[in-house]
Design brief:
single chain; 492 residues; alpha/beta; Aldehyde Dehydrogenase, Chain A, domain 1; Aldehyde Dehydrogenase, Chain A, domain 2; 2 domains; 22 strands; 38% helix
C-alpha cells in the first residue's frame, strides 16, 4: 500500500490541549505553512502566560485528583501502555500530520516516527516500577536510604525537526516518573503534538497530566521556564536559546534544566574503512538526512588522505541521486528546509564560508525543480579552516566540510570543537583505532561504523560543552525527571 497522500484531505487539530481537551484562547495568531509548498495550514494562537497558568492549574488539579504520583506504579504503567496503543492505532494519521507539517518524509513518519513514538511511551511505561533507591551503610540501629520522587510539574519545549519523537523523549519519562507535563510545541510544527495529546486523553490519561500549548518561545516558552510551580524544564534546540532558557531558569527561582543543544559533529574515516560504497553511503546520508536539519548532523568529514579522493568522489555521486519533492510523496528522498527564513540563514552562512576561503565541491545554491518549497542543494565544501565561520557555526542544513589528515592523532585533534560536543563517529575496520577515537573525542555520543541514533530506546543521548547536559532516553532519561531524597531513621 502506498504511503503517499493528499495533504488537503488531512484533518488538522486546533487550539491548545489543556486539561484533557482542546481549548481556544485569545492571542496573536501564528501562521503555519507546509514546508513542501508553503501553503497555509491551520494557524495556532500564541498562548503566553494565560495559557501557561491555565495548564499549570490543570496539572495541579490532575495530580491531586488522580493521585498519579502515588499511584501503584503498575497501574500508572497500564495507562501509558494504553496511550502507546492509541498512538499505534492512529499511526497513519499522526504520520501524515508529521509529514505535511514538517520536513519529515512520509516514507519515514508513519512506519517510523509514529511507531517509534509509541515505542518510547511503551519503553518508559515499563520503567514505572523500576525506579529504585539505595540503602546506605550506617551505624547500628539506624537506617539510611535514598528514594527518587517526581518533581510535580515538568516543563518541556520541543523543536521543529523531529516533533513527535523529541516530544516523547520528554513527556513519556516525565509521566512514567509520576509527573504532570506542560509542553510547548514549535510554532512551525505544532499539529502532530496536539494530536498526540488527544491520543493520551482517549487512552484515559487523566486530563491535565499532559498539556500541549502553542506559542512563541519568548512568550509561551519563557512563561513555562519562569513559572514557579514548574520544577524542571527540558529543552531541545539551539545553543543560543538553550543559554537563554538556562539563564531564565536561574533568574526565576533556581530550577534544573535538561538541555540538548547544537552540534558540529565530526565523522572520521580511517585509511581502512571497509567497503567504500557502504562507507560513502553512510557518510552521505549522515549529512543529507532530513535536509541536514538534525542536531547530530555529521557536518565535518575528517578523512585519511590516502582514501580521501575516492571517498569524496563517491559521496558527490550520491548527492546527485536524491529526489527532492513534497514530504507527502512516498517517492521523495530529500526533504525541504523547514521555512524560507531557515533557508536564507543556511545560504548566508554557506556564502560567507566561501567568501572566507572555502572551495565548493557541489551545491551551495537552491535546488531547482518543480517544487514550491525551499530545497537547499546538498553542499560539500573543502578548505574550511578552523577560523572560518563554516567551522565555528552550525548550519543546520545539508552542508558538510571535508578535511584530510595523515595520522589519527591529527584527526582526533581536528574533531575537537571549541564550542560543541554533541556527537561524533568513526568509520574503520580497525577496532583499536575505533576505541582510541571513542575514548578521545569530546562528545556525549560516539558511533562506530554508523552516524546517528538507532531506534534503540536504551541508548542515552546528550551532549557535552555547548551542546548541553542531561540525557534523553535510557535509564538516565527517566532519572532526569526525578529528584533524590535522602532519609535517615534513628529507630532507638
Amino acid at each position: 500500500m502506498s504511503l503517499s497522500f493528499n495533504p488537503d484531505t488531512v484533518t488538522i487539530p486546533s487550539g491548545h490541549h489543556i486539561g484533557g481537551r482542546f481549548v481556544e484562547l485569545p492571542g496573536e495568531k501564528i501562521a503555519v505553512l507546509r514546508p513542501s509548498d508553503e501553503q497555509p495550514m491551520r494557524p495556532v494562537t500564541d498562548g503566553g502566560k494565560d495559557a501557561v497558568e491555565m495548564a499549570v492549574a490543570a496539572a495541579k488539579s490532575a495530580l491531586a485528583a488522580s493521585g498519579w504520583a502515588r499511584m501503584n506504579p503498575r497501574d500508572r504503567a497500564k495507562v501509558l501502555f494504553r496511550f502507546a496503543g492509541k498512538i499505534e492505532e492512529k499511526a497513519e494519521y499522526l504520520g501524515r500530520l508529521e509529514a505535511m507539517g514538517s520536513s519529515r518524509l512520509v516514507a519515514g513518519t508513519v512506519t517510523g516516527d509514529a511507531i517509534r513514538t509509541a515505542g518510547v511511551v511503551r519503553y518508559f511505561a515499563e520503567y514505572c516500577d523500576k525506579l529504585e533507591g539505595i540503602v546506605t551503610a550506617t551505624k547500628a540501629e539506624t537506617l539510611s536510604y535514598t528514594r527518587r520522587e517526581p518533581y510535580g510539574i515538568c516543563g518541556a519545549i520541543v523543536p521543529w525537526n523531529f516533533p513527535m519523537i523529541t516530544a516523547a523523549w520528554k513527556f513519556a519519562p516525565a509521566l512514567a516518573a509520576g509527573n504532570a507535563v506542560v509542553m510547548k510545541t514549535s510554532e512551525l510544527t505544532p499539529h502532530s503534538l496536539l494530536a498526540l495529546a488527544e491520543c493520551a486523553a482517549e487512552a484515559g490519561l487523566p486530563g491535565g497530566l499532559l498539556n500541549v500549548l502553542n506559542g512563541w518561545g519568548h512568550t509561551t516558552g519563557a512563561a513555562i521556564v519562569a513559572h514557579p510551580d514548574i520544577g524542571i524544564v527540558s529543552f531541545t534546540g539551539s545553543t543560543k536559546t538553550g543559554t537563554a532558557v538556562m539563564t531564565l531558569a536561574a533568574q526565576s527561582g533556581i530550577k534544573p534544566v535538561v538541555l540538548e543543544l547544537g552540534g558540529k559533529s565530526p565523522q572520521i574515516v580511517t585509511r581502512n574503512p571497509g567497503d567504500m560504497d557502504a562507507v560513502a553511503t553512510r557518510v552521505a546520508n549522515a549529512f543529507m538526512v532530513n535536509a541536514g536539519q538534525v542536531c547530530t548532523l555529521a557536518s565535518r568529514l575528517i578523512v585519511d588522505r590516502l582514501v580521501a579522493d575516492e571517498l569524496v568522489d563517491r559521496v558527490l555521486e550520491r548527492t546527485k541521486q536524491i529526489k527532492a519533492g513534497p514530504t507527502w510523496d512516498e517517492a521523495t528522498t530529500f526533504a525541504p528546509v523547514i521555512s524560507a527564513r531557515q533557508f536564507e540563514r543556511i545560504d548566508q552562512l554557506v556564502q560567507e564560508t566561501v567568501k572566507q576561503g572555502a572551495e565548493v565541491l557541489t551545491g551551495a545554491a537552491r535546488l531547482e525543480g518543480p517544487n514550491q518549497g525551499n530545497f537547499y542543494a546538498p553542499t560539500v565544501l573543502a578548505n574550511v579552516s578552523r577560523a572560518n565561520i563554516g567551522f565555528t557555526e552550525e548550519y543546520f542544513g545539508p552542508v558538510m566540510s571535508v578535511t584530510t589528515y595523515d595520522e589519527i592523532e591529527e584527526a582526533i585533534a581536528e574533531a575537537q570543537h571549541p564550542i560543541y560536543g554533541l556527537a561524533a563517529s568513526v568509520h574503520t575496520q580497525d577496532l583499536k583505532l575505533a576505541m582510541k577515537v571513542a575514548d578521545s573525542v569530546e562528545a556525549g555520543m560516539v558511533w562506530v561504523n554508523q552516524h546517528g541514533r538507532d531506534p534503540e530506546f536504551t541508548y542515552a543521548a546528550g551532549g557535552w560543552k555547548g551542546s548541553g547536559f542531561g540525557k534523553d532516553m535510557g535509564r538516565a532519561g527517566i532519572e532526569e525527571f526525578t529528584r533524590q531524597k535522602a532519609v535517615w531513621i534513628n529507630y532507638l
